[in-house]
Amino acid sequence: MSALEGQVQTVLGTVGPDALGITLPHEHLLIDFTVMFAEPAAASDKGRAWEPVSLANLGWVRQNFNANLDNLRLLDEQVAQDEILLFKRAGGRTVVDPTPKTIGRDPQALARIARATGLNVVMGTGYYVDASHPPDMGRRSVDDLAREMIADVTSGVGDTGIRAGLLGEIGTTYPWTENERKVLRAAVVTQRETGAPLMVHPGRHPDMPMQLVELVRKEGGDLRRTIMCHICRTISDVRAVIDLAQAGIWLEYDLFGMENSFYPYNPSFDMPNDGGRMAHVLALIAAGHRDQILLSHDIAYKTSLVKYGGYGYHHLLVNVVPRLRAKGLDDAGLARLLVENPARAFAFA
Questions:
Q1: Domains assigned to the chain
Q2: Considering only CA atoms, which of 209, 268, 271 is closest in space to residue 236?
């Protein structure tokens, strides 16, 4: 039995699940997402790729969010603090930041933000997609990777003493690579050892979440402690999501506020807007899966921040919640999605 059983591990120490309150289960306060940068091919667009985000280029950057380098970098701690305080003022209490190790995870900055804002901040551990892996990943073993993740959870990252409270977001592509499988296997070993929740970023194909479920199950992981991210950009047919829900995993609709249907990472896929996300969520509730749903924004771009013309970390609370209420979700249903589900999802087993 883990000493962490029933507790949630934040960057400032453990708290009881009842201390979480309204929780954002998937946000990036600080991130260097340069690995996703795709310089535009057209000569006239190349200059825009290197400009700072501004009112003059905001429309273009929103449409081509990974083609502007500045947009992919949330590096300013003060901006992060100001922006997440908007969530606190709207009633929020906890934010989970699953930024993986090689794309800018910053334990000490997260601890400073937690102290300065009074919010609970939960940090992740592990590795993102293959393109972000360190050069020696091919030589590393499952045991070696698991030891690193276990240490992050049990003793802290490096010599910081700041502990991860989540395994993830573990990144996969489609089709996924051998190294990505290895990282997920190591995360499952760590889950079994520590009782930590596991969060997986699926490759962009509707079959991918089930492939991930099968690997977690085969490796002896706990599917009820496993969060599948980015459902709305992966599976468009809600009946397929309802089928996926039978596995018992957490279904994370974490792209609220992304209202643009063009999706640069998979241009053939039409990204739903918030109305489409809400329709899925309400259909899942009607199908009996309200206890498996998590909601967030996955903010990782400047254009999502209020300072740069975005909706901000408080968008769910100030814009989406009133719409869900108008569609018939009562206070108990909203509390389930925003408070009770995250409290169960992030408590150690």
A1: 75-345 (3.20.20.140)
A2: 271
Burial degree of 340 (CB within 10 A; 0-12, 13-18, 19+): middle
Task: Please name the residue that has the structure tokens 């993102």.
Answer: 128
The Cα 182–Cα 329 span in angstroms is 41
CA angle 143, 146, 147 (to 5 degrees): 85
Q: Which two tokens stand for residue 284?
A: 């899942």
CB distance 298 to 311 below 8 Å: no
Sign of CA dihedral 81, 87, 92, 96: negative
Q: Tell me the helices (H) and strands (E) count for the chain, helix number first.
A: 13, 12
List the structure tokens of 305. 């921040």
pTM: 0.97
Radius of gyration of the chain (CA): 19
DSSP 8-state secondary structure symbol assigned to residue 348: B
Query: What tokens does 317 get?
Result: 């609370």
pLDDT single digits (tens) 183-195 = 999 999 999 999 9
What is the Cα–Cα distance from 154 to 146, expressed in whole angstroms?
A: 12
**Which helix (H) or strand (E) element contains residue 192?**
helix 178-194
22 has a pLDDT exceeding 80 = yes
Structure tokens at 325: 């209420």
Residues 217 and 225 sit within 8 Å (Cβ to Cβ): no
DSSP state of 105: -
Identify the pLDDT of residue 214. Answer: 98
Beta strand pairing status for 8-10 and 13-15?
antiparallel
**Residue 281: strand pairing partners:** none
DSSP summary character for residue 72:
G
CA angle 71, 296, 88 (to 5 degrees): 90
DSSP state, 330?
-
Q: What are 10's strand-pairing partners?
A: 13
Q: Two tokens at 297?
A: 């924004």
Alpha carbons 175 and 182: distance in angstroms, whole number = 14
